[in-house]
């Protein structure tokens, strides 16, 4: 991975690393595939996590650990979408809004998880240079991917909340390409949110007896 951690080019005064650029391009592709409900979103997310793990490993252990967890959740998402790919009636997973109980559970898990991970980072300073925002992104990413794996529209809202912190944190940490990609993530998230929102409403619409299919 040493060659991947070398500088690719300089953009607006920011030094862009090959690993940062390639890993995040895969992450961007994974988000686009998730918008299209393609099961290939998960292998691409796994590969993005693997490349970014190599980018962070050795000097940002907390960020590397996040990518390791991302790879595990990507495997879970692949398994979930394989099981439910016929639910949408078009060979893809069906999408829906989470129940209030599911929303409450995800919010609680995000809050408790962020506090727990931040305290871990503070106890071991070598894991993260900025424990609270790093923990927020760490846990928020996992919650977003879990919601995606379950076909929940809230997946997109979770990504928006992660973006709000992810953009400035990546720029401050020297991963400029990650910061730029997070900005593009924001636009893709809005388009994906609209698409999944409309699909969930269509799926929830009752079919009138005798109406044409």
Automatic annotation (TrEMBL):
The chain crosses the membrane at residues 12-34, 46-79, 104-124, 136-162, 174-193. Keywords: Cell membrane, Membrane, Transmembrane, Transmembrane helix, Transport. The keyword Transmembrane applies. It comes from the Bacteria. It is a multi-pass membrane protein. It is found in: Cell membrane. It holds the Pfam family NMN_transporter. Belongs to the nicotinamide ribonucleoside (NR) uptake permease (TC 4.B.1) family. This is Nicotinamide riboside transporter PnuC.
